[in-house]
């Protein structure tokens, strides 16, 4: 097999575009197209469908993608063993993160990897919980950092930290400036929530089923983007429901106000999941260890504690209550 062509196959599949890969290789698009056509002839099947917006994998291409990824990962590992002159880990590590967690981990993780393991290359992906679940299941990622609710932790997952769930509103909003918001207060409240299927939506719906008859969640907008949810809440258009990963920072910045959701509360666990499709390389294991260390540092620093803060960051002695 021609590993260079297989790498092109993966790059084109990930980019969804021949022209983007051509730019990456400083080549003309026709040269990339010829290599892909040669690979298709070698396999005796069409691997990509050409569309007006780029290319997409055929059924045959999708079935081969995880196998080729695993083959390239193993080749990369063996090449690293041949090339390295010391015991430092080498190779690419693919990590998926939720937007809220990415804001906390990416910069310090990159810095520590660069300092301690200069031959390790990070490839970072940002996605929703559902996307990360799918990517880790297919082997597209080595590590995914995502939410679990209740006792959902699965095999090859390790808890990193727990966070409470908060109702988020505009600065000064009476409801979210209170010390807490009971779940019953969500009845009919305008909400901006991620689209279903989604772990938060499932957790909320489970509690709704235990409420009085007629209780309903009034979802006025579905948005899978954290910035969109934050903007809607900040402008008083709808209330968001967020984990404590980003809430404290947003309250300190004066962007929103927030109060923990109680009676009942919804506890989230941030976990590090690893791929079941292939064993972790030494590089991936070292990066996972750094992720674990960074999470422990945030826990010790109180990053996820209840944001009973004034917008300027000072502790509020007596938070305002609902009128």
List keywords for this structure.
single chain; 323 residues; alpha/beta; Arc Repressor Mutant, subunit A; D-Maltodextrin-Binding Protein, domain 2; six-stranded mixed sheet; five-stranded mixed sheet; 42% helix; globular; disordered C terminus
Q: State the end-to-end CA separation.
A: 71 Å
Q: Hey, roughly how much beta strand do the residues contain?
A: 15-25%
Indicate the CATH class of the domain at 162-269. Alpha Beta
Q: Looking at CATH, which topology of the domain at 162-269 would you report?
A: D-Maltodextrin-Binding Protein, domain 2
Our Rg estimate from Cα atoms comes to: 23 Å
Low-confidence region ranges: 309-323
Mean pLDDT: 86
Structural class: alpha/beta
Number of strands: 13
**Strand arrangement, largest sheet?**
8-12-7-11-9-10
Helicity level, as a percent range?
A: 40-55%
Overall morphology: globular
Assign the CATH architecture of the domain at 162-269: 3-Layer(aba) Sandwich
Q: Largest beta sheet, briefly?
A: 6 strands, mixed
The tally of helices reads 10
Helix-strand pattern: HHHEEHEHEHEEEEEHEHEHEEH
């Amino acid at each position: 097999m021609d590993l260079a062509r297989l790498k092109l196959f993966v790059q084109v599949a990930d980019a969804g575009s021949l022209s983007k890969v051509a730019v990456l290789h400083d080549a003309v698009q026709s040269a990339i197209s010829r290599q892909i056509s040669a690979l298709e002839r070698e396999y005796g099947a069409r691997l990509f469908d050409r569309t007006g917006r780029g290319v997409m994998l055929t059924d045959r291409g999708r079935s081969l993608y995880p196998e080729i990824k695993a083959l390239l990962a193993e080749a990369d590992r063996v090449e690293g063993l041949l090339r390295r002159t010391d015991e430092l880990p080498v190779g690419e590590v693919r990590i998926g993160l939720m937007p809220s967690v990415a804001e906390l981990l990416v910069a310090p993780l990159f810095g520590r990897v660069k300092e301690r393991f200069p031959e390790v290359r990070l490839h970072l992906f940002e996605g929703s919980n559902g996307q990360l679940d799918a990517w880790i299941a297919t082997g597209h990622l080595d590590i995914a950092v995502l939410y679990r609710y209740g006792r959902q932790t699965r095999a090859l997952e390790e808890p990193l930290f727990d966070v409470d769930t908060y109702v988020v509103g505009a600065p000064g909003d009476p409801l979210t400036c209170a010390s807490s918001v009971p779940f019953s207060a969500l009845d009919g409240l305008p909400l901006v929530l991620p689209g279903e299927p989604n772990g938060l939506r499932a957790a909320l719906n489970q509690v709704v089923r235990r409420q009085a008859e007629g209780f309903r969640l009034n979802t006025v907008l579905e948005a899978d983007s954290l910035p969109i949810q934050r903007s809607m809440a900040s402008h008083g258009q709808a209330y968001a429901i967020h984990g404590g990963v980003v809430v404290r920072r947003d309250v300190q910045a004066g962007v929103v106000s927030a109060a923990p959701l109680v009676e009942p509360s919804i506890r989230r666990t941030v976990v590090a999941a690893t791929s079941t499709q292939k064993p972790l390389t030494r590089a991936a294991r070292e990066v996972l260890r750094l992720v674990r260390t960074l999470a422990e540092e945030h826990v010790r620093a109180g990053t996820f504690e209840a944001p009973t803060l004034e917008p300027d960051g000072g502790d509020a002695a007596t938070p305002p209550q609902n009128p």
